[in-house]
Amino acid sequence: EIPIYGAKVIGIRQGDLDFHGKPRNVTWTRLAETAMKNSSEIVVQEPVDWIPGDSIVIAPTGKNGNETETNTIDSVSSDGLTITLVTPVSYTHYGITETFE
Length: 101
Prior knowledge:
about 20% strand; 4-stranded antiparallel β-sheet; mainly beta
């Protein structure tokens, strides 16, 4: 832990820090449909410009916060909405919204 800054910081003192990479139009999005366990396709709400080989993280959507998954993109549909993954997801990830009153 760094005094004043805490534990969640990238700090440089008397130096330079350069980040390199390709800018992306969409850095995160939500699922448009539920991705069932063992599925290797996910459908997202907005078009992405991601490419095969990119790594993605799929956040947990159920009660178990330990269901975060990291995967690699195998392909992206021409409309940018359907992503095929190298390996199937290990958990179901819900892509629905429910409102309760």
